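Letters spell out the chain; the tokens describe the backbone. To illustrate:

===
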Amino acid sequence: MTGKLRVAVLFGGLSSEHSISCATAGGVLGAIDRDRFEVVPIGITRAGQYVLEDDDAEKFVLDPAHLPEVVDNGTRVRWPEDNVSRTLTVERDGVVTSLGQIDVVFPILHGTYGEDGTVQGLLELVGLPYVGSGVLASAVAMDKHFTKSILQHAGVDVAPWRTLRRHEWSGDADETLLEGLELPVFVKPARAGSSVGVSRVSQPDELANALRIAFDEDDAVLIEQGVDGREVEIAVLGGRPGEPARASTYAGEIVVSGRDFYDFDAKYLGAEGIDLVCPAEMSDEQLAEMKEIALRSFDAVGAEGLARVDFFLTASGFVLNEVNTLPGFTPISMFPICWITSGLSYADLITELLDVAVARGAR
């Protein structure tokens, strides 16, 4: 293969994490190695239109006063009509022009209709290689109920929980829903990320409102036992064909002070009360155990490409919280921070992900 690899950077989307996806795209557009890669930025509007976006990192800076978004600019990007051609086209003012052949897609999408296997399925159908996990692993890891079920079967400790479907809830604060669980609990949409729709419940009378907030995001909701432990995370990179995945040299820790939990505002809008620390302070034995569990969990859900694996480090050991197959990827997000601290720059991390995706080829 000669010349620059052509990368379609795909971002935005229909989920409530649209703006975070845009901010992540801004980080990638600003750091990607332009000597090796030519970028075709494709935005997905909140209404689901695929538009040709500006190759401008500054346009997508995460400003709390004005969150970035993809707006309909009148263009329409068309995917290949079959899995033989990798040529994309764009329609503008009724005129269709070629965007050329695409070598690999970098889907920087968070939440439903992007992180959950739907876009991955589209890319499979048209035969385009892409960064990250395939359809099954993306769908499994997006759904907290199924993730926990699979990991529990694999012998990984997870927090006790119960899953409630919308049709099973009467709309009131039925305290029987808390049976077998100790307060505080966390109420979470089964398929959402970035702490969207998540509430901490410390009193039974707070449950009904927490459920309403979560059901606004999904038809399935988890009521999960709160875990008393340090919030620690580690980054995993999938290998090329025939190679195993590897974990970052160091783990990170989310230090919460003055907030109930690591919520959306703290993650992305600069709210006080949260510090991201890397490397996290832990013994060599603890770090080795964390890496082993993270890699086992990565394989258990069938992940590929990348993942951030989140734990609680309790007095009795590690409790796995989440396997995130498309983690936050801004330069200040924990996944890149773990690798940067481990000696891999942000730009080199992007290059590694793209190289692995090309090596794996179309699934």
Summary: The chain has three domains: 5-130, 139-157+227-360, 161-225. The domain at 139-157+227-360 is CATH 3.30.470.20 (D-amino Acid Aminotransferase; Chain A, domain 1). The two ends are 19 Å apart (CA to CA). The first strand starts at residue 5 and ends at 12.
